[in-house]
Design goal:
about 325 residues, alpha/beta, D-Maltodextrin-Binding Protein, domain 2, 10-stranded mixed β-sheet, 11 helices
Length: about 325
């Protein structure tokens, strides 16, 4: 998965910006709803609430954040699909809701192809967190330990935020890649998962790493065994002290991150999509947005053209469908 990191500002002449704003105002409805598939107060909600005002300014329209959790994000996604295809409802999504939920949850009837990507906004880095008492200080030792534990009939445990979640799929893919059976332990959220790693109740997890988790690691209450950044690639400031597992002796080509972006119904008229794309691209160039994303421990996504966004989304869908098939993920 490409990291899609960029710190460059999107440059445009004042005349181009004015033209883009006029076009957006002409093409979009008076109110744009950013549909967040989780309750208020969480990380996804935080992203939406740092985007809404800059987006309203760029689009010249009112932007409202609407939260609707449930059914692995499908309730919010379905509301967007059921609304008119006029840009009035924009889905804020990630691989969890758009690609994996339909593969893991039988109640989710939508497909990733029902949506069209408009622009990515942020990319969250992934790392391996482990309990402090685990006899592994880096990924090579983790792999050796996992193989031995599996051979002894006592597989290591790894946590996730639920069956079919991004973290579950990565954990199962990791075990399959290194040839070690692992015991999956699902949780209802990242917070209780991290608490149980700190409490030595679960061996490790492959998750988005927050400043809070790094603080626990620095206090010696858990360990960071490595990031999932591509080999030789520098990580965000939050994780600069930790190596990539892709630079290890044992594991290569296991680079992942998790992105968040904005999507509309696939049948949304082209002028509307272009207007939203222009406004969101302008948001990516906002210094305040970039700074707040970095404070959340995220990387700013590189601005993509509409064609690039579609190619990236199609490649991600194909990649995770292949992984889901290889680990025999079944809808429940």
């Amino acid at each position: 998965m490409s990291s899609l990191i960029s710190r460059r500002t999107v440059l445009a002449s004042p005349f181009a910006l004015l033209g883009g704003m006029a076009s957006a105002q002409a093409s979009l409805p008076k109110q744009v709803n950013l549909m967040v598939p989780y309750p208020a107060g969480g990380p996804s909600d935080a992203i939406a609430r740092l985007v809404d005002k800059p987006l309203a300014k760029a689009a010249g329209q009112m932007v409202i954040v609407e939260n609707l959790g449930g059914v692995s994000g499908a309730l919010a996604a379905q509301k967007v699909l059921s609304a008119p295809a006029d840009g009035g409802y924009v889905f804020q999504g990630s691989p969890n809701e758009l690609i994996l939920a339909p593969l893991a949850n039988a109640a989710v009837k939508l497909r990733s192809e029902d949506f069209r990507p408009v622009q990515l906004i942020g990319v969250a880095p992934i790392a391996i967190l482990a309990r402090k008492g685990l006899a592994a200080g880096h990924v090579d030792e983790l792999i050796a330990l996992a193989r031995k534990a599996a051979a002894d009939g006592k597989p290591l445990s790894y946590g996730s935020v639920g069956v079919g979640s991004f973290y579950h799929v990565l954990g199962a893919h990791f075990g399959q890649t290194v040839g070690a059976t692992l015991n999956h332990v699902p949780y209802k959220g990242v917070a209780p998962l991290v608490q149980d790693i700190a409490g030595e109740q679960v061996d490790f997890a492959i998750v988005v790493v927050t400043p809070g988790a790094i603080a626990l690691a620095e206090q010696g209450r858990m360990k960071v065994l490595g990031t999932l950044a591509p080999a030789g690639k520098p990580e965000v400031a939050l994780l600069k002290a930790y190596p990539s597992i892709n630079d290890s002796k044992t594991l290569h080509d296991f680079a992942f991150n998790i992105w968040t972006g904005y999507f509309v119904r696939k049948d949304t008229p082209e002028p509307v999509v272009q207007a939203l794309h222009a406004a969101l691209t302008q948001v990516l160039g906002d210094a305040g947005v970039r700074g707040q994303l970095e404070q959340l421990g995220m990387m700013v996504a590189s601005p993509l053209s509409l064609a690039e966004a579609s190619r990236h989304y199609e490649a991600q869908t194909a990649r995770f469908r292949a992984i889901a098939k290889s680990i025999r993920l079944e809808a429940q």
